[in-house]
Amino acid sequence: MRALTGRLNLRGSGAPDCRRVQCRRRAFHPVLGALLIAIAYANAGAAYGAEPDAPLGALAEAIEQVKSRYVGSIDDRKLVADAIRGMLQGLDPYSEYLDPEAYRELKQDNGGSFGGLGMEVGLESGAVRVVSTFEDSPAFNAGLRPGDLITRLDDISVEGLTLDQAIQRARGEPGTSIALTVLRNGDPKPRVLTMKRALIQSRSVKSVLLGSGYGYVRITHFSQRTADSMLEALAEMVRQSGSSLKGVLLDLRDNPGGLLKAAVAVSSVFLPEDTLVVYTQAAAAQSRMRLRTGEDQYLQVNRAEYLKQLPDLKNLPLVVLVNSGSASAAEIVAGALQDHGRATVAGTQTFGKGSVQVLVPLADGAALKLTTAYYFTPNGRRIQGKGLTPDKVIEQPAVEAAAGMKPVALETNAIKAGESAACATPDAPGAQDAALLLAIPGNSDDCQLRRAMELLRHLPVLARS
Fold first, then answer.
1. Are 55 and 328 in contact (CB under 8 A)?
2. Is 12 within 8 Å of 329 (Cβ atoms)?
3. How far is CA 295 from CA 78, 184, 235, 442, in A?
4. How far apart are CA 222 and CA 319, in angstroms?
5. Which backbone phi and psi does 337 adopt, to 5 degrees?
6. Residues 6+ away with beta carbon under 8 Å from 39
7. Buried-state track 408-424, b at ≥16 Cβ within 10 A, e below 16
8. Residues 230, 149 share a domain
9. What is the pLDDT of residues 2-30, one digit of tens each?
10. Do 35 and 17 have their domain in common?
11. pLDDT (tens digit per residue) in 144-154
12. What is the arithmetic mean of pLDDT over 105-126?
């Protein structure tokens, strides 16, 4: 999953740079070495009739046939690059080969001198699938929805492109236009949406104190300041309520993820000290980790007195609202709070993006982006490809069905299905509360929001040991 934004390092689920992932430099990479050995075997076999040794025999034979029979000229370096690219593409949608030019561009992305569209995307069936759009972004304002499939960028088909290649084509100078051909579930034919690229700058936390005394906090993505901004929002709501904040609705819908550290920091605000938030399983020891809560995750030195103004956040009634656009870091937070019985999770099945990619630079200036680990919730639930099942399933037919969203396929015995909560006749919030919620950009008078507020008012969940 990658972000079509003006800053690729804005989202942790996007392609990371060397400051945010494990970057390992080798004088000579074994994959590259194996391919070159295979080419050497093929050359030797062609010259002397020698039989290459297994297990490189099939690869060497294929290379020999290409070099001897292909109608055009063959460059060994390009042959190796294409072989590596095909090998990585066959692993999963997130692993890929970056040639030297693509790798240089990736490292320069942090300069922020280019524009984007403001959406989180992934590859699906030869098309670019929209996971979520960032509020007030070109994609959001043009009407793109989660579940939309982008098939063309201007006149270029995305079929056959890697995710990075599609993202590179979507980016450009701020103010320049691009036309996206979009397939939407239920539409009789594709639609073309034209939008102008822009520098994507979005606040990650939005909040409001409701007249009923409950707080509403929406996190749109997880960035470096998310936990700090959330604390500021909670402190302001406590001040407005006269220190009588009754509970919090944490809205993580259409949150594509972001920085892992920010997810741990947000979890630390609500969970006891030294509580497991997430862990990884991986083949390599250096990719295995167990991340736990701690005040050092979110509490700056000058915030010690500031935190004393807040109520006991570890026991404040909490409902977390998710949907099929909640991914990656959002799933880590929801999963940790759910597993530890700290919150009731409501909404629909989450996206299921829980894998770790690292950049492995190669000696020739290229790099591998390789999936090295999977994220697991504290109770051992794998996020990747499965997602999280809410405690209270609240469907949103008018929005999610139109967007073509379907819960990820679940293994029957992997995750216990949540308790369904019908949306036909919810208790509507008071007129004042409804108006306050609707005043937040991107919110609508939707069923999930109403039912989640009802759940918070009538079924508060206190922290359990």
1. no
2. yes
3. 50, 44, 16, 31
4. 18
5. -65, -35
6. 60, 63, 76, 79, 80
7. eebeeeeeeebeebebe
8. no
9. 444 333 223 333 333 333 333 443 334 44
10. no
11. 988 899 999 99
12. 70
Q: Between the CA of residue 416 and those of 259, 345, 388, 390, 423, what are the distances in Å?
A: 28, 13, 10, 9, 21
Closest-CA residue to 30 (of 334, 264, 363): 363
- Mean of all residue pLDDT scores within the chain: 78
Angle of CA points 1, 450, 455, to nearest 5°? 95
How crowded is the C-beta side of 55, counted as CA atoms within 13 Å? 1
Helix (H, G, I), strand (E, B) or coil at 151: strand
Q: At 109, phi and psi to the nearest 5? A: -55, -30
> DSSP 3-state helix, strand, coil percentages of the chain (rounded to 5)?
35, 20, 45
Structure-token pair, residue 61:
């034979």
Instruction: Please give the pLDDT value at position 347.
Output: 95
| Integer angstrom CA distances of residue 419 from 13, 199, 319, 416, 422 | 30, 41, 15, 9, 10
pLDDT the model gives residue 410? 26
Please check whether residues 254 and 325 belong to one and the same domain: yes
CB-based contact 136:116 (threshold 8 Å): no
Q: Give the C-alpha separation, 446 to 106, whole Å.
A: 39
What the block records as the tokens of 189 is 């034919």
pLDDT for the residue 433:
65
370 phi/psi in degrees, rounded to 5: -125, 130
Decide if 321 contacts 393 (C-beta within 8 A). no
SS3 of 239-263: the string is HHHCCCCCEEEEECCCCCCECHHHH
- Domain range for 34 is 30-89
| 130 occurs within a structural domain | yes
Task: Yes or no: say if 348 and 417 are a contact pair by the CB < 8 Å rule.
Answer: no
Residues 345 and 283 placed together within one structural domain of the fold:
yes
**How many domains, in total, are found in the chain?**
3
Q: Do residues 165 and 190 make contact, with C-beta atoms less than 8 angstroms apart?
A: no
Active site residues: 328, 339, 353
The torsion of the CA quartet 86, 91, 94, 99, rounded to 10 degrees, works out to -30
Q: Record the tokens describing residue 48, joined without a space.
A: 């002397």
Among residues 70, 89, 108, which one ends one of the domains?
A: 89
Token pair listed for 414: 């992997």
Percent of the chain with pLDDT over 90: 37
Q: Calculate mean pLDDT across residues 71-81.
A: 88
